[in-house]
């Protein structure tokens, strides 16, 4: 069973790596982002998209964690 799990994990990892490489190779256009008057240097389109994805993957769980902490504190205050 361990061998099967490792093979499945390897296949999933390989699929993620291949899809990431294909995504990067398909998005070779250069873009410049403008936000609140600030203009970024020209980068490949894949870079801002990947940065936004990673930022969302970090910010989302952090905000969820803050909500859970607030609810726990609120419940603790009620029990006192």
Commentary on this structure:
With 80 residues, the chain is mostly helical. The protein has one domain. It contains 2 helices and 4 strands. It has a two-stranded antiparallel ribbon. Strand 2 and strand 3 form a beta hairpin. The model has no long low-confidence stretch (mean pLDDT 90).
Please, how many helices?
A: 2
How far apart the termini lie comes to: 49 Å
The amount of beta strand, in percent, is: 5-15%
- Biggest sheet descriptor: 2 strands, antiparallel
Going across the biggest sheet, name each strand in turn. Answer: 1-4
**In which range does the helix fraction lie?**
over 70%
Average residue-wise pLDDT: 90
Strand tally is 4
SSE layout:
Layout: H1 2-26, E1 30-31, E2 34-35, E3 38-39, E4 43-44, H2 46-79
Antiparallel strand pairs: 1-4, 2-3
Task: Put the structure in a nutshell.
It is built from 2 helices and 4 strands. By secondary structure, it is mainly alpha-helical. The N and C termini lie far apart (49 Å).
């Amino acid at each position: 069973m361990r061998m099967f799990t490792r093979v499945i994990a390897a296949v999933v990892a390989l699929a993620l790596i291949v899809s990431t490489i294909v995504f990067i190779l398909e998005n070779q256009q250069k873009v410049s982002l403008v936000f609140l008057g600030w203009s970024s240097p020209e980068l490949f389109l894949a870079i801002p998209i990947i940065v936004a994805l990673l930022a969302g993957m970090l910010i989302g769980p952090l905000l969820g964690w803050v909500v859970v902490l607030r609810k726990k504190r609120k419940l603790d205050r009620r029990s006192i």
